[in-house]
Write a structure and sequence with these properties.
- The chain is mainly beta and 483 residues long.
- The chain has 6 helices and 29 strands.
- The protein has helices spanning 3-9, 148-157, 169-175, 252-259, 420-423, 451-466, and strands at residues 15-16, 19-21, 37-39, 53-58, 69-75, 85-88, 91-92, 97-100, 106-112, 122-130, 136-144, 189-194, 207-209, 212-214, 229-235, 247-249, 266-272, 302-310, 319-324, 337-341, 347-351, 356-360, 372-376, 392-396, 404-411, 425-429, 434-438, 442-444, 472-479.
- The termini are close together.
Length: 483
């Protein structure tokens, strides 16, 4: 079976690479941007085993926004230069970099400007490379695209902080476009809170991002009876309210049409006005929500509703909070958590109370050539609270199985494994202060040298992926060489 055919069979599946996600409650910190040089580390000695050091210096002499930055990237000595990739604000700028001599390391230097996608304010540069042993080295740098003179001029005129008190109408106008943490870089995690659970009341701020309380429109575009929805729109990189984009809508269809106009660099916080229920034809799929139209006039249709998502995001990826008439109790819809920055500098909402997990294909630290899925801080959940080490639970792919894919499914509401009682075994690992769980999930020998076995494995995997339901969280992890 050709590789293209194999991949078509797996269309729509989540291929897990080594990564870690979670939520941080870190408060926004005031930090003054560096003016002369910015770097991922104060130490410019040889990079650590899997670390990359990135250093930026300003070449611009004017007070305008057209300055350039010279970026120096120092990588481990075992780095393969042909594998280096450099991404600026989501754009590949690798061709701008060339090798430069440096002691006991692999170094590359490049000069970037607005032509390469460098912005006059916040920029995020990400570098990744492979080493000779196949492992990855990576790092990320935030830097200000303005020249030193422009940064100094900006700091002399911008107020130090947006106050956390409820703004008056006049204050709201002044605050529009101000940084959610005042003058300084946004941290990787910015606190998000709902000030009036149950929806905007038309008078006081509804949500808070860092120090900024929103909306700032003061009712100017929501005059009359508040009987629909409010959509607050912020820039996905700066988290500043987009001027003129925050609006109210009298019905679901008006809201859906508006959400379709938003772009991927914008985040929309959408909710029903306080005291009102969602109207028919609710569809927030344009920001990663759900099209509830098929459920209209049923007991499963949302009543009070709130969603947070990015323009153009895949349906089902947004945060949604609502209650229906089928639920035993009602509640005031809300969202609390943090906006977390990704490798391209875009922020995404992560609710508080989420659980961190780590997926490690061919994990070198656990097992013998096995892949692992690690759940962290899950001691509060029923399945794990009796374990000796409930806050670090490591699932292993089936022993003595390699060159294929491992599929493991957990219940989304409690992270329980449906096969636990029948097949899985848990054992305390005192040496590593963790609980090891073996024999969970299913292995598919898609990399078998036997053609019929390979073809059968792909077909079975396709069928099992199609059977995953919305109440399950599926992990599909490679073991060995799966293709």
């Amino acid at each position: 079976m050709k590789i293209a055919q194999r991949l078509l069979l797996l269309a729509g599946a989540l291929f897990a690479c080594q990564f870690s996600v979670g939520t941080s409650r870190t408060a926004a910190a005031d930090k003054e941007p560096a003016s002369a040089a910015e770097t991922t580390s104060a130490d410019h000695s040889d990079p650590a085993k899997n670390a990359i050091l990135i250093h930026a210096t300003s070449d611009g002499a004017s007070a305008g926004n057209s300055s350039t930055k010279t970026i120096t990237i120092s990588m481990p000595a075992e780095t393969r230069p042909e594998t280096v990739r450099v991404i600026l604000n989501g754009k590949d700028v690798t061709p701008k970099f060339a090798e430069t001599p440096c002691s006991e390391a692999v170094c590359e230097t490049g000069t970037l400007s607005s032509v390469d996608g460098m912005l006059p304010g916040k920029n995020v540069l990400y570098a990744v490379a492979k080493k000779s042993d196949g492992s990855l080295a990576s790092s990320r740098l935030h830097f200000n695209g303005k020249s030193e003179a422009a940064q100094a001029a900006s700091r002399s005129t911008v107020p130090g902080k947006v106050t956390a008190k409820a703004p008056t109408k006049a204050e709201a106008t002044a605050a529009l476009g101000s940084s959610p943490i005042g003058d300084g870089y946004l941290p990787p995690a910015v606190i998000f809170n709902t000030l009036t659970p149950g929806g905007w009341n038309g008078k006081t701020p509804w949500i808070q991002i860092g120090y900024e309380q929103l909306p700032t429109l003061g009712g100017s575009t929501c005059s009359g009876t508040f009987n629909g929805y409010l959509a607050v729109v912020v820039n996905r990189q700066t988290l500043m309210e987009v001027p003129g984009a925050t609006q109210c809508f009298p019905g679901s269809q008006n809201l859906a049409a508006y959400l379709q106009t938003l772009t991927n660099d914008q985040i929309a916080i959408v909710g029903t006005i306080q005291g009102f229920s969602a109207a028919g034809f609710l569809d927030t799929s344009a920001i990663g929500g759900t099209n509830y139209t098929p459920l209209d006039a049923t007991a499963d249709y949302p009543q009070s509703y709130m969603a947070i998502g990015a323009g153009g995001a895949a349906a089902g990826s947004a945060y949604e909070n609502f209650y229906t008439n089928n639920m035993a109790t009602t509640f005031d819809v809300f969202a609390t958590g943090a906006l977390i920055e990704d490798a391209t500098g875009n922020y995404n909402f992560q609710p508080s109370g989420t659980f961190e997990y780590l997926v490690s294909p061919n994990d070198p630290n656990n097992g013998s050539g096995q892949s692992t899925i690690t759940l962290l801080n899950v001691g509060s959940l029923f399945r794990y609270n009796q374990f000796s080490y409930p806050d670090k639970v490591v699932f292993y792919s089936p022993a003595n199985q390699t060159n294929g894919f491992w599929l493991m499914k957990l219940q989304r509401d409690n992270l329980d494994n449906l096969d636990f009682n029948a097949n899985c075994g848990a054992m305390a690992n005192s040496a590593k202060q963790q609980t090891d769980v073996t024999s969970c999930g299913k292995f598919y020998p898609t990399g078998s040298s036997d053609a019929p076995t390979e073809a059968s494995a792909f077909m079975q995997l396709q069928n099992d992926l199609a059977a995953v339901n919305p109440d399950q969280l599926a992990f599909l992890v490679s073991v060995g060489t799966p293709l």
